[in-house]
Amino acid sequence: MKPTFPFTAILGQDSVKLALLLNTIEPNIGGLLILGTRGTGKSTTVRAIKELLPDIKDFINPYPKHKINQRTKHTEGTRTSVRSMPMVELPLGATEEHICGTLNIEKAFTKGVTELKPGILAKAHMGFLYVDEINLLEDNLIDVLLDAAASGWNTIERDGISMRHPAKFVLIGSGNPEERDLRPQFADRFGMCAEPLGPENSDMRTKMLLQCLQFDKNPHLFRKGYVSLQRDLRSKILKAIHRLPKVIINSVQQRIICDVCSKLCLHGVRGDIAVARASRAHAAFEGRIQVLLKDIDAVIGMCLCHRLTHEIRDIEVSSQMVKNVFWETVSSL
CB 3.0 to 4.6 Å from 244: which of 28, 284, 287, 325, for a disulfide? Predict the structure, then answer.
């Protein structure tokens, strides 16, 4: 297996990297949608976060057998173990059965037990699920992924037999909007949205080229140069996760967020909630237990930009517009 390009070595992509880090610290933000043209490093950046993910406690045997009359009882293990947070990638051509899993009907009828054959959602439990080219995925499959990500459960029904299991994961989707737009009702269900940008100038492009050549020549030697940075960033993430429950966002800041969403005529309150959660995660990442206006400013564009119009191609423009409304609201207090 080819070594992963270090997360701390990736040049640019500040908004995408920040959004990934915040979703690692606070999985309840609601996931991340990455929309950008081809060749901007979307997949490379997402896959690089895997090495920074924290360890988790999980059930050793989360999918035991059940009697048929225990129709909707959820699966629970009896012992726990510590393991790395999973990063699961949805393969091309995956079907609904591959995603959700299936039930062993033969054993159900012959032995009277329901046995789950875990799918991708089960493998992604308590981790990240990455879907590349999500805008090209069939709508019914996107629905399945978003429903499971929002509820934290996956229900499988077949021939009158039903079973459900926990499926709590952070959904990360990426795509090129030039190929096909993601329907607005789907985009709105992602907590954050970011656009990876290409190199700003020739100097940045030259640095990127040099990095790629060095990594191709000797990936292990290249990675050694980033061991310390990777370790420090992972330690910062772990500290932020432990600090997060103590972080406070005051009533004035909450009102500002709601006023901005009202001025932007956003439907529902998903955007308000995402901004509040992401702001707290940003404060925790910066080492504070009190949210400041700069925390809200850092995330509000990414949390609201994809909720503005039916056309979501100009992510950076929309994000800046949201920030302008935010500071206008602050100055009017």
Answer: 284
